[in-house]
Amino acid sequence: MGTNSLPPAHEIPTAFSASLRSWWATGEKTSAIAEERLLRRLPFFRADTLGPNDSPVVATSSRIDLDKPKHYLNTLSITSTNPAPNAPPPAVVLHGYGAGLGFFFNNFMALAQWAGHRGSSVYAVDWLGMGRSARVPFTIKSPRKDIPGRVREAESFFIDSLEEWRMKMKLEQMTLVGHSLGAYFSVVYALKYPHRVNKLILLSPAGVPRDPDATTVPERELEPPPSHSNSTSSASIEAATGPKVEEIRAEQASSRPRHSRSRRLLMYLWEEGWSPFQVVRSTFFWGPMLIGKYSSRRFSGLTEEDTRDMHDYILNITLAKGSGEYCISHILSPGAHARMPLVDRVAPLKMPVTFVYGDHDWMDPEGGEQSVENLRKAGNGQARSYIISNAGHHVYLDNPKAVNDLVVRELDRRPVIQ
């Protein structure tokens, strides 16, 4: 264990006591405090809009109300104080399943520098029913056997609220930077609203490959990140060539577990619409410790202060009312492969599309490679796929320097008119 990592939560009495106190007090106020604690790492973040500002950008947090009562999306806005008339479309950062915009606290500075330099903006949004956005009821009317109907309903819950958010924000076009399930929804949004998407940057996207027996191993989400010895170098970005993809898939296959009785039980619960976050909510006193073990192990590459703040943030958004999390069994089958894989749906996309995977990812990079080929065959030669070294599924946290460099480079890449 590195010097900057935390031991398991049960070995940190003060942190555990603090977690228990937050367990009793979790709510909108404490979750806002937990999020703000992460965002205050940005020197240009302002809790209110009062007072002078001499920074090239200013960051504020707000709720954007949607048309339905009590529907809103939690939003971080990083806007240029000197907007350019011909600025590139803003970047919109979208988190993955059960996460929130606070997960990107190590990426906002680089994106803000891009926004300030280009006179543009960056937004980070919590999906409806997740993070600190409205926890509204999530229901599916289609019968279980109607897979396309279930998928469409679940997808619409998220992408239609994002479109409504876009209209409220008066944005003509956006570059979507999505992680995991957020990357999946970004592609689906672009398929439904293609004229509103300038580019897609997909970080370890979920739901891409079609093979239900592919090498994806969701259990690897619980593993600590790989060594960070080279994580400060942009040289850790490489093209996702065939041999490199096969190397990663071989590692994934070697760690794939057998279908044990407990795994079969989890698959059954998955199909029944069970959410893993229900476990944390139902365990009462043990909830903070379970999250503490996850955050200290999975984010061991962070500093002790960052890990503690991430733990508090994750605890607060996890204990909030279940909502959008119940989408997962409608969109993904057990094993985390899509019921309607993106590799078979991407061909209509005409904008630049960038796939990004970690070299220790549990998402299968072959799906990205096949998608790039399918896009090329459909006439879109603007698709790329990259591998980031020293990184797992949370590639943007495991190797932020490399990911930040790549994302900024892709934001500045000029689209080819087709």
Throw out a few tags for this protein.
single chain, 418 residues, 11 strands, AB_hydrolase_fold, phospholipase A2 activity, AB_hydrolase_1
The share of residues in extended strands comes to 5-15%
* CATH H-level superfamily of the domain at 40-257 and 339-412: Alpha/Beta hydrolase fold, catalytic domain
Strand order of the largest sheet: 1-2-4-3-5-6-10-11-7
- Extended strand count: 11
- The helix tally amounts to 14
What is the radius of gyration computed over CA atoms, rounded to a whole number of angstroms? 20 Å
- What best-fitting shape do the alpha-carbon axes yield? globular
The share of residues in helices is: 25-40%
- Nearest-integer average pLDDT: 84
Q: Which architecture of the domain at 40-257 and 339-412 per CATH?
A: 3-Layer(aba) Sandwich
Which residues sit in consecutive blocks of at least 5 with pLDDT less than 50? 1-25, 229-234
**What CATH first level of the domain at 40-257 and 339-412 would be assigned?**
Alpha Beta
Largest sheet: 9 strands, mixed
Report the CATH topology name of the domain at 40-257 and 339-412: Rossmann fold
User: How far is the N terminus from the C terminus?
Assistant: 50 Å
- The structure class reads alpha/beta
Order of helices and strands: HHEEEHEHEHEEHHHHHHEEEHEHH
Protein name: Alpha/beta-hydrolase
Region (Disordered): 210-256
Biased composition (Basic and acidic residues): 210-223
GO molecular function, one term: lysophosphatidic acid acyltransferase activity
